[in-house]
Amino acid sequence: MKKFFKKMIVFAILWIIYVYVLVISHIPNEITIFEGEHIALKTIFGMTVHSTDEVLEVSANSKEKTIHTVGKETLSVNLFDKIFLKNVDVSVLPKTTVIPVGNIAGVKLYTNGVLVVGMSEIEGEDNKTYKPYENSGIKEGDTIVKINDNLISSTDDLIEKVNMSKGEKVEIEYIHDEKTKECSITPVKTSEEEYKLGLWVRDSAAGVGTVTFYEPSTQSFGALGHGITDIDTGDLLNIASGEFVTAKVLNIKKGEDGNPGKIQGTVEEQETIGKITKNTEFGIYGKIQDLSSLNIDTSKEMEVAMREEIQLGKATILCSLDNQTVKEYEIEITKIYKDNHYNNKSMEIKVTDQELIDKTGGIIQGMSGAPIIQNGKFIGAVTHVLVNSSTEGYAIFGDLMLKQSKEVN
């Protein structure tokens, strides 16, 4: 019996240690907040949080901290005020105002290197089939950045460098899971006198979406509320550059439960709005070059709401479905995930405006980025539709988008 109790005690101690390690690992190393915003760190019994400077206010909930000084701050997480666990670096941004936009616009992205989107056998000049990429380590979703120490910037670039090899082994530098790797592949000569690796690659992407906000103080913009991923691999595109351009809406395919709709548009022969500098999980960001192309009302500047200010219930979205005519439509916020700092599903929303439902069926592709307004403040943007309910979907907090935008500048 004593042995049993000893084992139970050891098990309990190991379990407690595991729980503490798990909690510590989930406390981020870096946090970006706005001046006056609460920091809610998930701690457990015995864990305390201290500031290196005297600028923290402790709220009724001892796990929450508020910083009122713009700049950098370091929080120290300790156990029973005695044992140091980790530091959390906090960047405190000044409160800002934005102009919610709502215009449909075109997106053109160009990758850093070329993205591998598929692989196929090659028929050689001897009519035999080969897999030159086999055992090279390259996978779908990887990005080829160099061949024989020459930078690769486009698909044409890759084709040219491979043909220059004349069938000799080529040294390839590629990125896999954010790590740079190297391999060698011997191209196969085809009956058309071309040399191929057996890799399908892509160097650009294009589509339409909604501009969320314009920030006058920095002349920057945010859009979509989610990142642009490759259609074949599903991976976030690692971009070298990009353009935001005006778009022409050609057709609206109405959505229905189980079959999401979409805005069909074209970006051909349109005007440049600005340059895209960053493609993130929380949207795309960059600088406006031609503000007039957005056709926005600069008098509509408003504060960005802190998530503590967002309430369940009525709100509105701004959306352009008739080529630059932005209208306001009613929605309802049904759930709020205030502790969500990690993805773009911050709120659950439902379209209640009958005019919008009649026109689109609810939320459709291309509406991602439509700004959400509540009580005269910008609170977020539409990001996803629920496939089984075309009037329902997700939205991202406005503060998450602004923080990403600030990281660009």
What would your notes on this structure say?
The protein has 409 residues and is mainly beta. The protein has three domains: 22-93, Immunoglobulin-like (Sandwich); 97-108 and 204-408, Thrombin, subunit H, CATH 2.40.10; 121-197, PDZ domain (Pdz3 Domain, Roll). Helices cover 13% and strands 47% of the residues. It contains four helices and 31 strands. The strands form seven sheets. A six-stranded antiparallel beta barrel has the order 9-18-19-24-23-20. A hairpin with a 5-residue loop joins strand 4 (56-58) and strand 5.
* Portion in helices: 10-25%
The CATH topology of the largest domain is Thrombin, subunit H
Low-confidence stretches: 54-62
Tally of structural domains:
3
The averaged pLDDT comes out at: 84
CA radius of gyration is 26 Å
Number of helices: 4
Biggest sheet descriptor: 6 strands, antiparallel, barrel
CATH class of the largest domain: Mainly Beta
Intertermini distance: 65 Å
Shape call: globular
Strand order of the largest sheet: 9-18-19-24-23-20
- What is the CATH architecture term of the largest domain? Beta Barrel
Relevant terms:
Thrombin, subunit H, Pdz3 Domain, 3 domains, 409 residues, Immunoglobulin-like, 31 strands, mainly beta, 4 helices, six-stranded antiparallel barrel
What's the topology here?
Blueprint: H1 2-26, E1 30-34, E2 38-40, E3 47-51, E4 56-58, E5 64-67, E6 71-79, E7 83-93, E8 97-100, E9 104-119, E10 122-123, E11 129-130, E12 143-147, E13 150-151, H2 155-164, E14 170-176, E15 179-185, E16 188-189, E17 195-196, E18 199-215, E19 220-223, E20 239-246, E21 248-253, E22 262-266, E23 272-280, E24 283-288, E25 302-303, E26 313-320, E27 326-336, E28 347-351, H3 354-360, E29 371-374, E30 377-386, E31 389-397, H4 398-408
Parallel strand pairs: 1-7
Antiparallel strand pairs: 2-5, 3-6, 4-5, 6-7, 8-18, 8-25, 9-12, 9-18, 9-20, 10-11, 12-13, 12-14, 14-15, 16-17, 18-19, 19-24, 20-23, 21-22, 23-24, 26-27, 26-29, 27-28, 28-31, 29-30, 30-31
